[in-house]
Amino acid sequence: MPDEMQQRAGVPVLVCDPTGPPIATEQDALDLIGAAFLGAQVVAVPAHRLDERFFSLGTRFAGDVMQKFVNYRVRLAVVGDISTQLAGSSALRALVHESNQGGQVWFVPDLDALDDRLRAAR
To answer: Shortest CA distance to 64 belongs to which of 5, 105, 93?
Structure first.
């Protein structure tokens, strides 16, 4: 399936193709933001598409990507199981916890959980 615009819980979401290319550069993130400007308020990215550097906070890649989404006022949802990455990093656990408290970047296990977050954010 290609990236697809969907209405999820009444919110336009760009749901990224699980088999799409990896998101390994800031330009890859900007490309998603650009695609979102066609009407999406949220970009839902499968966690496994994110380069492993995203989950290694010392690389600053996660912060750079997340900041791009904040700057362009497009919400980011990282969708999928990241329990392996969380088990190896207390800093990542703290980042995920803090992000999930806010309204700009969320880490959710699946699209149903994203729907729940979107409904709660109204």
So the answer is: 105
pLDDT digits (tens, 9 = 90+) for 83-94: 999 999 999 999
pTM exceeding the 0.85 threshold for the entire prediction: yes
Mean pLDDT of the chain: 96
SS3 per residue for the chain: CCCEEEEECCEEEEECCCCCCCECCHHHHHHHHHHHCCCCCEEEEEHHHECHHHHCHHHCHHHHHHHHHHHCCCEEEEECCCHHHHHCCHHHHHHHHHHHHCCCEEEECCHHHHHHHHHHCC
